[in-house]
Amino acid sequence: MQDPLIVTTSTASYPVVVEAGALTSLPGRLADLGLRGALWLVCDAAVAQAYGEPLAARLRAAGFTVHTHGVPSGEASKCADELWRLYDWMIGGAVERRDAVLALGGGVVGDLAGFAAASVLRGIAVVQLPTTLLSMVDAAVGGKTGVNHALGKNLIGAFHQPRLVLADTAALATLAPRELRAGWAEVVKHGVISDAGLFAELEELAAAHHWDERPLAGWPDQDAELALRLTAIIRRAVAVKVGVVSRDEREQGERITLNYGHTIGHAVEALIGYGALLHGEAVAIGMHAAARIAVAMGLCDEGLLERQRRLLAAYGLAVTMPHGLDPEAVIATTLRDKKVQARRVRWVLPTAIGSVTVRDDVPEDLVREAIALRADA
Ligand code: GLY
């Protein structure tokens, strides 16, 4: 068992545990944190049977009072109606300030349940229990919570740091192959923005395994070596996020680098409709476009673009823009990004594998060229 990673911000300090089987340690860890009130387990419907029910039983056996609530899978659940259902459930069940919300599932449940915890009774504790690769390496760490508004993603929310994050990598065994692929995009992103060694490890792992064809069924029991290697890589990717949010909790500076690939990615998601493309799939497209812009601006060479494209492809991620998207609409949508300042888009652009810069002087024509990809580009 490894020491947990620790997020330390000016407002909070909490452990982030990345381990196969980590969920079994939850009752003891909650007790260690002094969380002895009732537990409000919010669970993605897709993992309720496999992980939610056994977890609730384990917590009850350890003496906790556990209330459970299922949330339909998918981005559409990050909405005011689902949020109000959580309030009705908790307030109707006499939630108290010493209680804690447990968010079990992917980024949707983490953001939704996290925001309910941030706001009910002016804030109660939340513990993030990510079961998707994407939420393990990104969404569950760093305290961003919220729901979507009809005019844009994540426009209503709050920073609410969890008391604990437990990423049980064994849960990846039952993750749909497409969800796993989408998660790799954020792992690759962390390599590009700040860890060249992680990027190289991903290249080596890609050479040894074909992720697009070989989901992790039977894992980790049937392949202990792969389990260790993959868990170590995920932990390394999580460490990038832990470092960034510890240094810049409120996105005053460095945290914006986590937005690499998201400017175009969010625009593409918004234009083709949330859910048509998974978030990670859109981020892969966005990273490719951002790297093309960086090449055109002379910030990095073609080699980086090609290395990144090959790595994304090795994990089953396409980088071409979806058919039928109007490039002008994409450009207009980037201007509604939350990171826009004084009507200038702040682009995160790579300068080398492991290093990025932030620029607000990208000419629109370069963006136009970067997103006008042929299907084979
Ligand atoms: N997902 C980006 C961030 O947490 O800042």
Describe the structure.
- This protein is α/β, with parallel strands linked by helices and 377 residues long.
- It has 2 domains: 5-174, 3-Layer(aba) Sandwich (Rossmann fold); 192-371, Dehydroquinate synthase-like, alpha domain.
- Helices cover 44% and strands 17% of the residues.
- The chain contains 13 helices and 11 strands.
- It has helices spanning 26-32, 48-61, 80-92, 107-119, 133-139, 177-194, 196-208, 224-247, 262-272, 279-296, 302-314, 327-334, 364-371, and strands at residues 5-8, 13-19, 39-44, 66-71, 100-105, 125-130, 144-149, 152-159, 164-168, 347-352, 355-359.
- The chain has a 7-stranded mixed beta sheet, with helices on both faces. Strands 7-8 form a two-stranded antiparallel sheet.
- The longest helix is centred in the middle third of the chain and has 24 residues, at 224-247.
- The model has no long low-confidence stretch (mean pLDDT 93).
| Biggest sheet details | 7 strands, mixed
CATH class assignment of the largest domain:
Mainly Alpha
* Total helical elements: 13
E-strand count: 11
* Uncertain stretches: none
Provide the spatial order of strands within the biggest beta sheet.
Answer: 1-2-9-6-5-3-4
CATH topology value of the largest domain: Dehydroquinate synthase-like, alpha domain
Instruction: Determine the fraction of residues in helical runs and give it as a percent range.
Output: 40-55%
Binned strand content: 15-25%
| CATH homologous superfamily classification of the largest domain | Dehydroquinate synthase-like - alpha domain
Bound molecules: glycine
Distance between the termini: 44 Å
User: Order of helices and strands, N to C?
Assistant: EEHEHEHEHEHEEEHHHHHHHEEH
